[in-house]
Known about the structure:
By secondary structure, the chain is an all-beta fold. Helix content is about 0%, strand content about 50%. It is globular.
Amino acid sequence: QVHLVESGGGLVQAGGSLRVSCEASGLTASYYAVGWFRQAPGKEREFVGAVSWGSGRTFLPDSVKGRFTISRDMAENTVYLEINSLKPEDTAVYYCAARRQSSSYVYTRAAEYDHWGQGTQVTVSS
């Protein structure tokens, strides 16, 4: 079974940078999509990017484009989300998720993912 573990969250001042990690186990093939989501108190889970595990191709929505970067290191079985120029509104629990990918379609909805990590808290101070 796929197992995902997020780490790297913490308390950061606005304007700073942070990299959160998602270590994946159980990916038996290259054709997986790994997505990042965040959820702030009182808000729905929000898509912030995805990467193709096999190719490394990434997709970022306009809401975070220019500040967020997604990458993956297959040797370390890890997907990274780097957040630059942090804003207080970035405060949320950040989750990674995975699902099989059989096409170039970018999965942007939480319901489209089958496996989830427990999340890591990112808090940005003013």
